[in-house]
Write a structure and sequence with these properties.
Shape: globular
Oligomer: single chain
Distance between the termini: 28 Å
Radius of gyration: 16 Å
């Protein structure tokens, strides 16, 4: 059994994780541990250790820090929990690299110019060229009023995609995408990476596990670029 601890700062998109756990099979457990915004992680770290987690990934915050600060935060998380650690932001970079994607189109929650610039800078620091950035209302499939569920997600992916992108990133942690990944990838004919998907994949990577799961997209089926 491989146990993954996800340190969550809010409830957005949390329904995706039980679905992903189910799709991965009976020997992977995904545990959500709540962390109040601004609170220390001492209590959460103890809960993670008691759960028997093999790795921890901090999620729910998006790209709120630059690449250097995020690396420092993850290093501190690993120190306090005593286990391999990462974050959803870092997971996007690692997942794109694993797929051999160097150019990415991004669908991000609507934010300030500074927030969008920080996201693009974070990805560039990870060696990714951003071919385009599309913003949408936080937690929605696309722009307000565009509907919900798969149709809205398909519209969001189509709006974000650019012809020269190797993959499309949906960075909003509030989006529930696990049930729709094959349809999203079919629509743009390229890998689609989403917050919940890359978060769990990152936990498995840290735990040194690869679990084939076709329903979770190319990230869970393709041979890693490093092994191709």
């Amino acid at each position: 059994m491989t146990a993954l601890g996800l340190l969550c700062t809010d409830h957005r998109g949390e329904d995706d994780y039980p679905r992903i756990e189910q799709l991965l099979g009976s020997d992977v457990r995904v545990d959500l541990v709540r962390l109040d915004p601004g609170a220390g992680i001492t209590g959460a770290a103890e809960e993670l250790r008691l759960s028997g987690a093999d790795a921890v990934v901090r999620t729910g915050e998006g790209f709120t820090h630059d690449a250097e600060a995020e690396a420092d935060r993850v290093e501190e998380l690993a120190r306090q929990t005593g286990m391999p650690a990462s974050s959803t932001a870092l997971a996007f970079v690692n997942a794109a690299r694993d797929l051999g994607a160097t150019r990415v189109a991004v669908a991000a929650p609507a934010g300030t110019h500074e927030e969008t610039a920080r996201l693009r800078g974070f990805l560039r620091a990870g060696g990714l060229e951003v071919t385009g950035t599309h913003t949408a209302a936080p937690g929605s499939g696309s722009a307000p009023g565009s509907g919900s569920g798969e149709d809205a997600l398909l519209a969001l992916v189509a709006a974000a995609d650019t012809p020269d992108a190797d993959a499309v990133l949906l960075t909003d942690p509030a989006l529930e995408t696990a049930a729709h990944l094959p349809a999203l990838e079919k629509a743009v004919d390229k890998p689609v990476l989403t917050a919940s998907q890359v978060t769990v994949w990152e936990g498995l990577r840290l735990a040194e596990r690869r679990v084939p799961a076709p329903d979770l997209g190319a990230l869970f089926t393709r041979t890693p670029a490093s092994e191709a």
